[in-house]
Amino acid sequence: MTDPRPLGRPPAAGTPRVLVIGGGASGNAVTILLRRAGIAVDLLEAKPDWNATTGSGITLQGNALRVLRELGVWDQVNASGFAFGSLGVTAPDGTVLFVAEDIQTGGEDLPATIGMRRPRLQQILIDAVRASGATVRLGTTATSVEQDADGVSVRFDDGTEGRYDLVIAADGLHSATRAMIGVPDRPEPTGMAIWRVAAPRPEGLTRTDLAYGGPAYIAGYCPTGEDTLYAYVVEAKRDRASIGPDTYADEMRRLAEGYGGHWSEIVKHIDDPAKVNYTWFDRHLVEGPWHRGRVVLMGDAAHCCPPTLAQGAAMSLEDASVLAELLTTRDTWDDQLFTDYHARRLPRVRMVVDASVQLGQWLLDGVRDADVPGLMGRTMTALKELP
Q: Reduced to 3 states, what is the DSSP secondary structure of residue 159?
């Protein structure tokens, strides 16, 4: 199903037209980078609000910050988030057991970690996409993707059509585009689920702390600004149909009340079920090619992992950086380019997915002597290398 003939050329030899499906971190990032090279880009996003108001918080480690700097938004991210360089592990009662220095995976000139509100990060990327001159279509989806020797014809749910040299599918974990082009891989639940909420940051809370054990497997929090944080509790997955959305605050608060330290203040603000998010952990990795002809996958459409290493967004941003690099430096956009993209990304992404799943599986299996620090340290050290 691949086509070795050129799909187009970089701007020096003409301006190809690219459709990016999905306006999350990876879709926004690749749009910005391609527009910088003068490539015409249409960005398609299903949500009318461009996901600018949803989500609690996000943890961005150095290798994610490295890409955000490449995008030209580092100053805004730095000003909007909360930087820190250590990770604490506590007992359920809040007693600090040890503090480890975080590895600066983005290099010595970037913080090890920044926590920030997810909607703020999305708005920064939205503003950069708008400034890039990309054409943006919100509240619209692609209903069919048909390829021939000369390009890709795409039909949209508003009855319009478009013709493109390349389609980049960045439409998330349950990617409709992935299914359209015949990639059979689908996400699988790992057996864990997470409750998340945004809350005020208690005085003295200046890093991520993780408590293992207690009422749940993990209870943690991450500062996201001068006066904000997001908190989370990880438990075994439950049937989502059995949990009414109006009980979300009660359910999370019941678990969180079993933890001490800063949790005694955080739990007071778990009072609105509309502000609590409940999500299963999934594992997803397309081992085979990430493209079919002129359609290529990136971000969660190609891979996803539990947030146990806080590397999901970083892997998606790295995808955008690598793919844009290849598209803007190669003379032809051919099958070899997309094969090289897959070859560069797969080993690194597989390492992160496997390690993230393993950290959770040890908890599910009750393994008490698991080498958690060793696995985390080896993985994060490897991520210091450029993707």
A: coil
> What pTM, to 2 d.p., does this model score?
0.95
- Strand order of the β-sheet with 161-164 is 142-148, 151-156, 161-164
pLDDT tens digits for range 12-30? 456 899 999 999 999 999 9
73 close to 124: Cβ distance less than 8 angstroms? yes
Residue among 284, 282, 285, 286 at smallest CA distance from 306? 282
pLDDT tens, 236-282? 999 999 999 999 999 999 999 999 999 999 999 999 999 999 999 99
* Distances from the Cα of 176 to the Cα of 50, 138, 161, 301, 368, angstroms: 17, 16, 17, 9, 40
Task: Residue 174: name the closest of 288, 297, 287 by CA.
Answer: 297
Mark 253-267 as b/e (b = at least 16 C-beta within 10 Å).
bebbebbebbbeebb
CA distances from residue 232 to 196, 256, 263 in whole angstroms, order as listed: 4, 9, 10
* CB-based contacts of 201, cutoff 8 Å, min separation 6: 82, 223, 224, 225, 226, 227, 228, 229
The three-state DSSP-derived secondary structure of 33-89 is HHHHCCCEEEEEECCCCCCCCCCCEEEEEHHHHHHHHHCCCHHHHHHHCEEECEEEE
Q: Are 183 and 71 in contact (CB under 8 A)?
A: no
User: What angle, 0 to 180 degrees and rounded to 10, lies between the N-to-C axes of helices 372-382 and 335-364?
Assistant: 160
Flag whether pLDDT at 362 surpasses 90.
yes
